[in-house]
Amino acid sequence: MAKMEIALDLGTSFTSIFVLNYGIVLHEPSVIAYFDDGGKKRTRAVGSEAYYMMGRAPEKTKIVCPIMDGTIKDADACADMLGEFISRILPESYVFKPKIRCVVGVPMGVTVADREMYEGVLMRAGIDEITMVSSVMLAALGTDLPISSNFGGLITTIGGGATEIAILSLCGIVSGYGINIGGDMIDRALMDMVSGKYKINIGRNVIRGVKDKVCSLIRNDCATTVVSGIDVETKNIRTQALSSDELYGVVFDYYKNIADAIESVINAGTPTVAAEIQRAGITIVGGGAKMPGLKPMLNKLLRLKVNIPNDAEYATVLGGGKLLSDDELLYDIISHQ
Fold it and tell me: Residue 271 burial by CB count (10 A; 0-12/13-18/19+): exposed, middle or buried?
């Protein structure tokens, strides 16, 4: 039987798949759209196609985001979505479906019940052999931190639904902390701010575009953009100019909470670990690491060297990809979970 080895990052905002010997072959929004076909639910679209239906879909089309706050919230929808993604990456040369082995990132502190749910979702999606590894460990491996050494580094992953912070040593997590702060929560706060200040409602897709275009952690940033939305009072379409500087306060508050959480993890460690962190600094990954001005902000607040790799958004799935060809390291990591 043909075999395929993959690494999987099931994120709140995006799902990424790495195939051994090919690299990252899929990076799509974690969204699925269903069509109500006479009371029967039928998959209409997944990924980018489903994402761009948000706010535009007709009544019989339901948009579902199956992963919230970094964990699977709708197992059935997640299995359907992942099954569609898996079918996309299968080579046309395969006559029969190959046996799929998968290394998948999971949140820190997942329970036995959570692991059973993940296993059920992945098996329903067509994956045959599953190895679960903490996402922060995979992210550290994906950024080439020395996870096997006496001090493997301090890493923070800022995702769409959650932020995880961990101190690593000898292929294990010395201490870790997770908070429900991520890109989705910042999006909602920005939407509330615009609605409250300008009395205009804008869609989730629109606010994500605003965040990508003009939001930053740089004080007095002069970037601006114009958005369209529905006037709260008149219900008419209206445009509104938004500037980076007026959105700064909303964005800063959330990243300040992340900085406080990082400091709490550092303070909970031993003096020896604190000295190592002072020497090596911290590594920030995930989609939230792309926010302009994050490095100088954290450097100022934490008084530490801050490293944000160029491929920060893909660190977790890249780390999983490395484990596909290193069974010895995988065994060491699994032994310390």
Answer: exposed
Distance CA 225, CA 213 (A): 8
Helices 75-89 and 112-124, axial angle in degrees (round to 10) = 40
Residue 41 inside a domain? The answer is no
- Let me know if residue 96 belongs to a domain: yes
- What crossing angle do the helices spanning 315-323 and 135-142 adopt, rounded to 10°? 90
- Indicate whether 12 belongs to any domain: yes
Q: Are residues 98 and 166 in the same domain?
A: no
Estimate the crossing angle of helix 244-268 against helix 294-302, to 10 degrees. Answer: 40
Q: Which amino acid is at 325?
A: S
- If one counts the domains in the chain, the total is 2
Could you report the per-residue pLDDT of 257-305, keeping only the tens digit for each? 999 999 999 998 889 999 999 999 999 999 999 999 999 999 999 999 9
Query: What pLDDT score does 2 carry?
Result: 84
CB 306 within 8 A of CB 289: no
Q: 77: which residues sit within 8 A by CB, 6+ positions away?
A: 32, 34, 64, 66
More confident residue, 1 or 272: 272
What range defines the domain where residue 166 resides?
Answer: 146-308
DSSP conformation letters of 310-333: TTGGGHHHHHHHHHTT-HHHHHHH
CA dist 139 and 126 (Å) reads: 25
Q: Are residues 214 and 78 in the same domain?
A: no
3 state SS of 100: strand
The SS3 of residue 304 is coil
Least confident among 64-73, 88-97, 326-335: 88-97
132 in Cβ contact with 104 (< 8 Å) = yes
Q: What is the pLDDT of residues 120-161, one digit of tens each?
A: 999 999 999 999 999 999 999 999 999 999 999 999 999 999
Q: Are residues 120 and 172 in the same domain?
A: no
